[in-house]
Predict the structure.
Amino acid sequence: MTTQLATSATDAGSRRPAGEGAARVPSAGRPPRRRHETWRIRGELAILLGPALVVFVSFVILPVALAAYYGFYKWSGFGTPTDFVGIRNYVTILTDPAFHEALGHNAFIVVGSLVLQGPLALGLALLLNRKMRAQSVIRVLIFVPYVISEVVVGLGWGLMLQSGGALNGALEKIGLGSLRADWISDPALAIWTLLIIITWKYIGFAVILFLAGLQGIPEELSEAAAIDGASYWQIQRHIVLPLMGPTIRIWAFLSIIGSLQLFDLVWIIWGQYVASTAGTSTMATYMVANGRNAGSFGYGSAVAVVMFLISLAVALVYQRFVLRRDTAGALTGGSK
Amino acid sequence: MTATATLVTPRAPRRRPAGANRGSSVLVGFVALLLIGMMLAPVVFIILGGFRSNAEITVDPAGFPTTWNWQNYADVLTSGVFWGQVGNSAIAAIATTVFVVALGLMAAYALSRYRFRGRGAVYALFTAGLMFPMTVAITPLYILVRNLGLMNSLAGVIVPQIAFALPLTIIILSPFLAAIPNELQEASAIDGLGRLGFFWRMVLPLAVPAVVTVGILAFVNSWNSYMLPLFILNNEAAYTLPLGTQAFASQYSVDTARVLAFTSLSMIPALLFFSVFERRIVGGLTGAVKG
């Protein structure tokens, strides 16, 4: 959740380098008072930037750096780490079948989220972007799952899906009793259950982003196409969809990173031990179960580093890929 | 429900020949209704379940309440535990929001309206923060908070939350502040307003829409935050609502109806907040998404 949103607009950020909108500070370069002025500006910058930088560096950058350091130690979390083990933690992680399984689950969630949420959310956003009565009510309703906490989602779905729960009850009622299943604890089903819950929970976020993207597309384009006789679907397919490219790619990026970091829902629904037997463990639950909860802070830190490197690698590859795609699109844009 | 009638798309009469789209509109409306039903079913299940009795839930898990039983909700609402957790969550969320907005605005103002060496580097540093989700940093963060003696205190949750919310805040606010016309600043300078004065008297009022967006995001994220409190708060008196809800659920695992009542009450604040400001969030993100 935090992470999902947190990464929003990362592209937007990186794409706006110095210059563009940044205002020149008026009177910054007037010769007579120059030195005095420079110091004044420095002071102001210190006041404005200082607090944010201090908090950010000490609670975001420093912990990540510390993780890299602790990762080389066998450490129970008390005192200073002294038992240097080199890369042994990393060797253990990379050869642990339980970690491979978790990684596999993460990969499944990454792909599954993109495939399920993308088209669905796009459809919903297009739908909600049309002028309709009670539009705002419907929009709020779509976002309900995204806004409620993972704990509520986990508990609610957990109770609904347990073997004596509401879903099985409802299936029985409508005569589909044969479809009853152990949605949560059957290892063949659990990961699909998780995927459905994730889709349900986070699709609202995709819809928000897509709606925001749609609002940036000038209506004149669709109007012009409509005058030329294009049908609604033709307009969506050939005008709106291509223009939504950047937004869709940002969303996909956020979704991938979020899926790689998945923790809350699995931990709440399946808990520490069941997650691995039910086949829903993720890298993050593996990290907490084998790190803090096992009292091995060095090992936990090493898992965090592995997770981070995997996310970073995926992000870099994706950025490269997206960049290439975007340039390709710019060159061949009209011909498709 | 109420949505049925509303989904038929009112066509913009000037643009499309009347009736051309009616069939597809009905279909679209039906699909939308179905999806919305699926979105809401689990929430409805939680809320209605709170009005039922445990016997009812066991016998017919998917049914509606036969008699509306207010006792579960009343029990939760009269318990000190629930309100204590609401209080903790509220303190954490409000403090996080206030500081994120204050620090984020100041930093975004410096980054978007000052020219100085290292500006790009600082901006890149904050942007890089998006690559460090809390999951990756949680173990050392826990140790750091423990070394600072902030275990089991809300401050131990609030400060890291501020730090992790800053990148997104700054990235949403910066383009917004940069878009404030220079002429305005020049005019204020002529009227004797310094840069900080300009920030205080002009930028703050103008930035309200973007501030609302980042504020809501920070608030809702803090309200729902699970992993950090799970690590930092081990003492039940310090529990925030998500932890409390989970603890309640395992403590009263046989009393499903009461758990459902507790759960539905715990989601109300975030829901209220979000429904009031939904439009603003979409509006505020528009700039950020388009870059």
Q: What stands out?
A: Chain A touches chain B through 123 residues (CB under 8 Å). Residues 154 and 265 of chain A are 6 Å apart (CA to CA). Chain A is about 70% helix and 0% strand.
